[in-house]
Write a structure and sequence with these properties.
The chain has 107 residues and is mostly beta strands. The protein contains no helices and six strands. A hairpin with a 4-residue loop joins strand 5 and strand 6.
């Protein structure tokens, strides 16, 4: 991994559940860490599902290792939100590939 090839900035967010004034659980996303990353692969596929046509953009981000990131987290990169699907460690805690999917539904 070369630092010069990491030209994107990603924000890893984690969900927290709080209660509003009425006592109803509300999920809020808060920033966990901001990392420099390289976009390794990005592909788009269109699927027709029960909810309508969906564009699934699968992206692989390569970044330095950060402990504690899990599939329950999400990534924000260039204004787009991605759900983390898989994390692959590179070397001995040197880096990691984060496979994520962005889902947008057309009405």
């Amino acid at each position: 991994m070369r630092a010069g090839s990491m030209d994107a900035t990603i924000v890893v967010q984690r969900v927290a559940t709080t209660r509003n004034a009425a006592g109803t659980p509300v999920e809020t996303w808060s920033d966990l860490v901001t990392l420099r990353a390289q976009v390794i692969q990005s592909s788009t596929e269109e699927f027709i599902r029960g909810a309508g046509a969906q564009d699934l953009t699968a992206t692989v981000f390569r970044t330095w290792f950060y402990p504690g990131i899990s599939n329950a987290d999400r990534i924000v990169c260039a204004g787009e939100t991605y759900d983390v699907k898989e994390i692959k460690e590179l070397g001995r805690r040197q880096g990691m590939d984060i496979r994520a999917v962005s889902v947008s539904t057309e009405a």
